[in-house]
Design a protein that fits this description.
The chain is an alpha+beta fold and 300 residues long. It is built from six helices and 19 strands. Strands 9, 10, 11, 12, 13, 14, 15, 16, 17, 18 and 19 form an eleven-stranded mixed β-sheet that branches. An eight-stranded mixed β-sheet has the order 2-3-4-1-5-8-7-6. The protein binds fe (ii) ion.
Length: 300
C-alpha cells in the first residue's frame, strides 16, 4: 500500500557543496535549511524531497515512502507488525522536520531505514528551478524518482521487500555481472531496485527524471563546472527505457539523470528477465572503475 517514493535523506561531510550542485547542476530548488544545517532540495511544489544532513561520513539515512492517507498508513503498519516488522512511530518533532502529518519507521534486515508517511506538505506554485530548465522534473503520481540499494542476499531481500512490504516486481536483469530486481508501486517502472552485492549493503543511486530531454543535455554541459564526473555514459536502459547518465555527487552515492522512462500498468504487467541493462551506452567511465559504487558498507 506504499504509493510513492516521497523523499530521501543522507548524511555527509560535504553538505555545503550541495548548495551549488543541487540548483546549479540538477536544477533543484534550495529550501531553508533543516535542523542542524541540513541542506534541503525541492524538485516540485512538495516542500522538500532531498535532505543532506551534516555528518562525519557519507551515510544513507532514510527513504521516505508516501501512503494515500492516515487510514492506509495505520492499516499498513498493522499488517507489517503482524508480519514481524519492528515499527516505531515518529514523534511530533520528527514529523515537523520531515514536513509530514504522520510517520512510522523501520529498518530492513541490513539496517536501511524506511519511513512510512502520509500528508507531506506542499506549497502550490512555489517551485522555481535552480537553473534554466525547459520543463520540470517528472514527479506527481510517480513520486520523487527511484532509489537503488545494494543488498548482500537477493532471496532474503526479495522476501522482505516483495513478500512483506508489497513492492511489485517489474523485472529482473540477470547475467554474470548483474543480479538486479526492479519494483514498482505506481506507474513509474521502478521506484526501488535491489542489486545483489555479496557481503555489503549500500545506497547506489537516486534517479531523477526530467520531462524534457534538453534539461538532461544541459546537465551534461554543466558537469565540468560542478566538478562532477560521469560514472556511466549516456545510454538507454532495456527495462524502463530511460535515457540517462550516472554522475557523482558530493556525497559518494550517484545520481542517475534520466528522461523518457516507461510508465507501467500494474493490471497487465508481467515481469520479464533481461540479460543486459542497456540497449546502448551506459559505459563505465575510468572514474567508475576507481570509486566505490555508491555509499557501500561491508556487513559487520
Ligand atoms: Fe536507475
Amino acid at each position: 500500500m506504499i504509493q510513492e517514493l516521497s523523499y530521501v535523506g543522507v548524511a555527509s561531510p560535504h553538505v555545503d557543496n550541495w548548495r551549488s550542485y543541487g540548483p546549479g547542476l540538477l536544477g533543484a530548488m534550495v529550501k531553508p535549511d533543516g535542523p542542524a544545517g541540513a541542506v534541503r532540495l525541492a524538485l516540485d511544489d512538495i516542500n522538500h524531497r532531498i535532505s543532506i544532513h551534516p555528518g562525519t561520513a557519507d551515510e544513507f539515512r532514510y527513504a521516505g515512502w508516501g501512503l494515500a492517507n492516515e487510514t492506509d498508513l495505520r492499516a499498513y503498519v498493522e499488517q507489517l507488525t503482524e508480519r514481524g516488522v519492528d515499527i516505531h512511530w515518529g514523534d511530533a518533532d520528527l514529523c515537523r522536520e520531515r514536513e509530514v502529518a504522520e510517520l512510522a519507521w523501520f529498518c530492513d534486515p541490513w539496517g536501511l531505514r524506511h519511513e512510512l508517511t502520509w500528508g507531506k506538505a506542499a506549497t502550490p506554485n512555489s517551485f522555481q528551478p535552480g537553473r534554466v530548465m525547459r520543463g520540470r522534473f517528472v514527479t506527481g503520481d510517480q513520486g520523487l524518482g527511484h532509489v537503488v540499494f545494494q543488498v548482500p542476499d537477493m532471496n532474503k531481500a526479495n522476501e522482505f521487500y516483495a513478500d512483506v512490504l508489497g513492492f511489485r516486481l517489474s523485472d529482473r536483469i540477470v547475467n554474470g555481472y548483474f543480479n538486479v530486481r526492479f519494483y514498482h508501486i505506481n506507474g513509474r517502472h521502478h521506484s526501488l531496485a535491489l542489486a545483489e552485492f555479496p557481503g555489503h549493503v549500500g545506497f547506489n543511486h537516486l534517479m531523477l527524471e526530467y520531462e524534457n530531454m534538453d534539461d538532461l543535455g544541459r546537465a551534461i554541459d554543466l558537469l565540468e563546472r560542478h566538478d562532477t564526473e560521469i560514472m556511466q555514459s549516456l545510454g538507454r536502459h532495456t527495462n524502463d527505457l530511460m535515457t540517462s547518465i550516472y554522475i557523482t555527487t558530493p556525497s559518494s552515492f550517484q545520481i542517475e539523470l534520466g528522461h523518457g522512462g516507461l510508465v507501467v500498468d500494474d493490471l497487465s504487467w508481467v515481469a520479464r528477465t533481461y540479460n543486459k541493462p542497456s540497449y546502448w551506452g551506459h559505459r563505465f567511465s575510468s572514474a567508475a572503475r576507481t570509486r566505490a559504487p555508491g555509499i557501500l558498507n561491508p556487513i559487520e
